[in-house]
Amino acid sequence: MGSSVAGPDCCGGFGNVDFRQVARWEQRTRKLSKVFRSPYLACYSLGAAILLLNVLRSHCFTQAMLSQPKMESLDNPTAYRVGLALLGIGSTFVLSSFFALGFTGTFLGDYFGILMEARVTTFPFNILDNPMYWGSTANYLGWAIMHASPTGLLLTVVVALIYMVAIQYEEPFTAQIYQQKASSSRKRS
């Protein structure tokens, strides 16, 4: 595999894990909030960096796919439609997650002390856990199938594995902070 296949990892493949480490550092020290003089501005700034690197990762993913040979068995109208359907489902999960969580809920606001009233359990969170991660994975898979790209399929597996690592960090933390919030609310009542 050429250097173009390694590109997506260099373009932020581990970004989800790295940003989570930055967010955990912020939670312990509140240094970004102090620098930006606001937890909201700090969260928006980190969110903007995450968005930009995700755009770069998607670009690198696409370039890696297009620079490699196609898989003949996927280069047909049926496979293309399956890829398009996956892209539609994935986009639905990603966008509905964003609308349910808002910007700060999507981009690690809980690490900045910006909490929602309660953990979100409406669509799409009532369908599956971590719908933004799995929707994004479906987007990459759909894109790979639409382009009949074995490289895209391999990179989709890498993205999914990275999301699974991120979930291992995120789930216990999210459960803990909302449990703490509920406990402190009961104590005040």
Automatic annotation (TrEMBL):
E.C. designation(s): 2.1.1.17, 2.1.1.71
Transmembrane feature ranges: 39-57, 78-103, 140-166
Positions in the Lumenal compartment: 1-2, 24-35, 105-147
Catalytic activity: a 1,2-diacyl-sn-glycero-3-phospho-N-methylethanolamine + S-adenosyl-L-methionine = a 1,2-diacyl-sn-glycero-3-phospho-N,N-dimethylethanolamine + S-adenosyl-L-homocysteine + H(+); a 1,2-diacyl-sn-glycero-3-phosphoethanolamine + S-adenosyl-L-methionine = a 1,2-diacyl-sn-glycero-3-phospho-N-methylethanolamine + S-adenosyl-L-homocysteine + H(+); a 1,2-diacyl-sn-glycero-3-phospho-N,N-dimethylethanolamine + S-adenosyl-L-methionine = a 1,2-diacyl-sn-glycero-3-phosphocholine + S-adenosyl-L-homocysteine + H(+)
Localization annotation: Endoplasmic reticulum membrane; Mitochondrion membrane
Membrane topology category: Multi-pass membrane protein
Binding-site residues for S-adenosyl-L-methionine, renumbered to this chain: 88-90, 170-171
Family, similarity comment: Belongs to the class VI-like SAM-binding methyltransferase superfamily. PEMT/PEM2 methyltransferase family.
Function: Catalyzes the three sequential steps of the methylation pathway for the biosynthesis of phosphatidylcholine, a critical and essential component for membrane structure.
Protein name: Phosphatidylethanolamine N-methyltransferase
Organism name: Felis catus (Cat)
Gene: PEMT
